[in-house]
Amino acid sequence: xxxxxxxxxxxxxxxxxxxxxxxLRDGExxxxxxxxxGGDPVGHKQEEGDQRTPxxxxxxxWRNPRSAFxxxxxxxxxxxxxxxxxxxxxxxxxxxxxxxxxxxxxxWLGNLLQRWDWTDGCIAVTNVAxxxxxxxxxxxxPIRIEP
Length: 147
Hints:
- This protein is an alpha+beta fold.
- It is built from three helices and eight strands.
- It has helices at about 80-90, 110-115, 125-135, and strands at about 10-15, 20-25, 30-35, 55-65, 70-75, 100, 125, 140-145.
- The protein has an eight-stranded mixed β-sheet, with helices on one face.
- The radius of gyration is 14 Å and the shape is globular.
- The termini are far apart.
């Protein structure tokens, strides 16, 4: 499979319960990708190491073309509320939540690996999907992650 050129996205929506990432334009979903999430995906990320993918409104604020995974886009987690909640419990909120492809060298397993939640809290897609998302999503794009 080869990545397609898709129109630029104005926003990204992840619905954890559907295991889907959607690209949005003019408020409409125009592209959908299956995702794998953190190993304990139910509920909002509370602290570092809890294996959860955060929920809420964030921004895809920078990208890493030399990631340990096939390309990665950084989610602006934790925000001030996330930090405050974790601090109140005496914990670190964690960070480095990314939308990324498969671990480098394992891209050929992409479709198989998408069948279960295997990340530490990130949002993983196949490498082909990541190439499309990478091209369509500029830095500063809002991302909403819903349960």
